[in-house]
Amino acid sequence: MEKERLVQALQQEQHQFEAWQVDVFYRFLENIERMGSPLGLTEAVGDALLNDHLLDSLRALPIIHHLQPSSIVDVGSGAGFPGIILAIACPDLQVTLIERMQKRAQFLLMMQLKLKLTNLTVIHDDLKNVKRHFDAVTFRALTTMDPTLVRLLLQVAPQIIAYKGRRDVVMLEKQLLEEAGYRCRVEELESLYLKKERHLLIVEP
């Protein structure tokens, strides 16, 4: 991927970042393109990597700015989306990545060191073993947000920001969680580059 493509996409999405942040975004994407497939992290490259992963991760920024957390924890970070992207975008935000798979955790730690992200911490462990507390938890996975998972996530933070797909599926999850006593709201995500439905499911006790 050419750096100019990244710059153009960020501008069209109306994201305003300093030059050093754009440079770190680009270096991270370069590493993903080179190592993502061999390490089993992601097969995405080029525009698919840019649109479906980096830009998708940034779509939660308005919500995060509104909530104003001083710390977030990204659970099941995998290749570093959205956690590493949010750490680059918000240098004053303390971001912790929790990844239970050793190979992925090692990659995340390598990225933290190579990109010199001083506001990023990597924890190689299962979420249920983490005793620290954070202001919010991000979650970007295909897993259904059922009450059991929500209880586990809320043990480490009072707010869940879950990246989700189709509205009909998200609304079913929302209904299930509200019936279990949780407060939920759904935020629709819009983008010039969005080729499929994307939503955020915000969950609180």
Kindly describe this structure.
- Helix content is about 40%, strand content about 20%.
- It is an alpha/beta fold and about 200 residues long.
- It has one domain: 3-Layer(aba) Sandwich (Rossmann fold), CATH 3.40.50.
- The chain has a 7-stranded mixed β-sheet with strand order 3-2-1-4-5-7-6, with helices on both faces.
Write the layout of secondary structure elements.
Blueprint: H1 3-12, H2 19-35, H3 46-58, H4 61-67, E1 71-75, H5 83-89, E2 94-99, H6 102-114, E3 120-124, E4 136-140, H7 147-153, E5 160-164, H8 167-179, E6 183-188, E7 199-204
Parallel strand pairs: 1-2, 1-4, 2-3, 4-5
Antiparallel strand pairs: 5-7, 6-7
Based on the coordinates given, report the CATH architecture. Answer: 3-Layer(aba) Sandwich
CATH superfamily: Vaccinia Virus protein VP39
**What is the top-level CATH class?**
Alpha Beta
Helix content: 40-55%
Major β-sheet, in short? 7 strands, mixed
Task: Write a short abstract of this structure.
By secondary structure, this protein is of the alpha/beta class. The chain is built from 8 helices and 7 strands, in the order ααααβαβαββαβαββ.
Can you tag this structure with a few keywords?
globular; 8 helices; 205 residues; S-adenosyl-L-methionine; seven-stranded mixed sheet; alpha/beta; Rossmann fold
